[in-house]
Amino acid sequence: MGYAGIGFGLLALVLPALGLVVGDSRATAIAILGIGGLTAVLTIVGAIVSGYVVPRRRYGADAELARRVGARHPAVASDLLSAVELDQTAVRERAAAPSSELVDALISSTEHRLAGIDPASVVPARELRRVIRIAIAVGVVHLVALIAMPVGRGWRHLIAPTPTPFGGAHLSV
User: Fold this and answer.
1) Torsion-angle region of residue 152: left (phi > 0), alpha (psi -120 to 50) or beta?
2) What phi, psi does 103 have (nearest 5°)?
3) How many CB atoms lie under 10 A from the CB of residue 118?
4) Alpha carbon distance 14, 36 (integer Å)
5) Nearest residue to 158 via CA among 5, 22, 40, 7
6) Gap between the Cα atoms of 32 and 34, Å rounded
């Protein structure tokens, strides 16, 4: 989701500047901003899909989530996956099912071992720090652009008409 946010930020930075490059009129800039708005909405939808829907499908089943946690914490990997797989009703109801007391004991001991694990440790901190740094950099670039673009008049120039000198009167020579 971080990349989608970065893409949205860069899009918001590039489109107004593109509007000034393509045409100096306010209507052209607003048309390009409208197209950019549609693109931004599609970017947000993409961020929701990649940040919420895809992880829910990938780690929606208990066994996949247990594998993910086990990959980050190898000390509990085997017991956690075994406890999850043995706790399924299909396993407990078959003819040669394992002992319910043993399965409950494994689940209980695994639960106690998992209590010491911080849920945030399952998510790689390196990726989170990198996305935060990129977001701060994009924010700084936006701030500089807000102050400097276009030619010192800022982003307002794109949505407000430029005041004409002398109240719009033309000078005759």
Assistant:
1) left
2) -65, -45
3) 7
4) 9
5) 22
6) 5
Q: Each residue of 147-170: pLDDT tens digit?
A: 666 555 555 666 666 666 776 677
Helix (H, G, I), strand (E, B) or coil at 153: coil
**43-59 burial by CB neighbour count: b if 16+ within 10 A, else e?**
beeebeeeeeeeeeeeb
Distance CA 45, CA 26 (A): 28
Question: What's the rounded Cα separation, in Å, for the pair 160 and 28?
Answer: 13
Task: Indicate the Cα dihedral angle 63, 76, 125, 57, nearest 10°.
Answer: 0
Tens-digit pLDDT profile for residues 11-33:
777 776 776 666 666 677 677 77
- In the chain, where the domains are located: 2-59+138-167, 74-116
Instruction: Write down the residue that tokens 């899909």 correspond to.
Output: 49
pLDDT of 62 higher than 60? yes
C-alpha closest to that of 40 among 15, 71, 64: 15
Tokens representing 1 are 């989701």
The two three-digit tokens of residue 99, written as one number: 């002992």
* Torsion from C-alpha of 29, 34, 38, 41, nearest 10 degrees: 90
d(CA 16, CA 125): 34
